[in-house]
Amino acid sequence: MRVAVIGAGSWGTTVASMLAPKAQTVLWARRPELANQINEGANPDYLPGFELSSELTAVTDVEAAIDGADVIVMSVPSHGFRSVLEHAAGAIAPTIPIISLSKGIEQSSLMRMTEVASDVLRGHEHEQVGVLTGPNLAREIMAGQPAATVIAMEDQGTAVEIQSLFMGPLFRVYTNTDVVGAESAGALKNVMAIAAGMAEGLGFGLNTVSMLMTRALVEMSRLGVAMGGRPSTFAGLAGMGDLIATCMSSESRNHRVGLGLGQGKTIDEIVSEMNMVAEGVKSTKGILALADRYNIEMPIAEQVGRVLYEDAPVPEAIAILMGRSAKPE
Questions:
Q1: CATH number of 2-147: 3.40.50.2000, 3.40.50.720, 3.30.365.10, 1.25.40.10?
Q2: Is 327 among the residues known to form the active site?
Q3: Start-to-end CA span in the chain (Å)
């Protein structure tokens, strides 16, 4: 088995290092200096302090990484997903499984990443394109802490093969056929994690954060089901599980963005302090556009959008949410 992991951020590197002892794994990094560091056993930019598998190889030629691969794992942020895939398209056979790790929405098209893959690779078998998603904080998994994830793919035979590849003593993998639900949940929860971080930044406690998370799950499910997902998916690892981890952990980039906003920092100040992409900053606009397309009410996402894009004060956004008219749960 040969695996190509495209994208050497924290999660892509973690997945590649986890797979390397079990399969020949090649990790594509955009920058030569980062590839060299990975080949020496470390990724100090994204995973400082962690030792990578000695069996992992990094390259800077995306076509070389994909050449001969049995599985392609895409770990490129949503804003660069299409361009990287277009560059590699000529080397990708139509039957090769493609698994996306990216949790975002393409701004120009409002497509999920599996939809982008099918759009770029027009002759590719769409049932071989899936997503891996769940409460998967990279540093915790690198530290050897138990975790679980979901592989959502229409072809269950392929999904089971990939499940076996990823499964480990401390990494439990489930399968699911609901690609739309699992993938949309991964993108939607990033917006909600910003809201939870904002509440924490204002000094609010668990009552407030629990309220936001619970109502966030309602919003996520409402839009995800309208898009074609199954309600049960949002109660599982891809939905509630990922929402809890992203809203509660200081390791979550989206939570950190919200925390900074709640503490009075500007979005430009926060982004300049981070060397990794917080998908929710870009995806919120797309999520709101999808909500408008499907005529779905998403008050939490709307207020996150106002803070991100209209410089609305965070206390004002919270006050608007709390002041909405009374209604049944």
A1: 3.40.50.720
A2: no
A3: 50
Q: State the pLDDT at residue 40.
A: 98
Strand partners, 174: 150
Alpha carbons 209 and 202: distance in angstroms, whole number: 11
CA angle 29, 272, 133 (to 5 degrees): 50
Residue indicated by tokens 């981890």? 245
The domain locations on the chain are 2-147, 180-322
Would you say the pTM of this structure is higher than 0.85?
A: yes
* CATH superfamily of domain region 180-322: N-(1-d-carboxylethyl)-l-norvaline Dehydrogenase; domain 2 (1.10.1040.10)
Tens digits of per-residue pLDDT, 61-102? 999 999 999 999 999 999 999 999 999 999 999 999 999 999
Structure-token match 């939809």, residue found: 115
Catalytic choice (22, 103, 189, 327): 189
The set of residues, in sequence order, having a beta carbon less than 8 Å from that of 311 and lying 6+ positions away, is 266
What is the pLDDT, as a whole number, of residue 58? Answer: 98
Average pLDDT estimate for 180-201: 97
Choose among 3, 4, 75: nearest CA to 276: 75
